[in-house]
Amino acid sequence: MSVLVGKQAPDFKAVAVQEDKVIENFSLGQFKGKHVVLFFYPLDFTFVCPTELHAFAEHLEEFNKRSTQVVAVSVDSHYSHLAWLKTPKGKGGIEGVHYPIVSDLNKTISRDYDVLVEGRGVAYRGLFLIDKEGIVRHQVVNDLPLGRSVQEVLRMVDALQFFEKNGEVCPANWHKGDKAMKPNQKGLEEFFGK
Description:
The protein is of the alpha+beta class. Helix content is 29%, strand content 24%.
């Protein structure tokens, strides 16, 4: 597994769907100048996956307030994505999800982000926080049965944006509004001293 943190996020062009629209030339590069949360999930019409897609949808306004674009990716076709978007939540569907869902049918995006489970043809639950310049600033990869915390993703967006704005670093368990520190010995001593 490669670490992409600190590196340029691999760009891609692919077919995506957003609500009932097919986007033929969807690209990551179109979001340059904006923060992006790019997350991979194994397959449409499965079990943990719809809980995650709905969790991101339920917090979409919070991401929008932070000028952060949410993008999902799986190895399914855009036809499968469209069918799943038309399936009610109570039936295991993702009806009501409004952010783009990318089709990685040829699995190149999953390979480029090193989340492809070779031999199974699905992606691990990889998540990448990408800054305005297209640099990966945070990544986390969960095994297939382990769902993610959207609250933790929002916390990481807040931490990155706080650092970008203030130049101070965010200590363990930092949340928006908490005390941060200057990235030097004096800053650490002041942090622990109070």
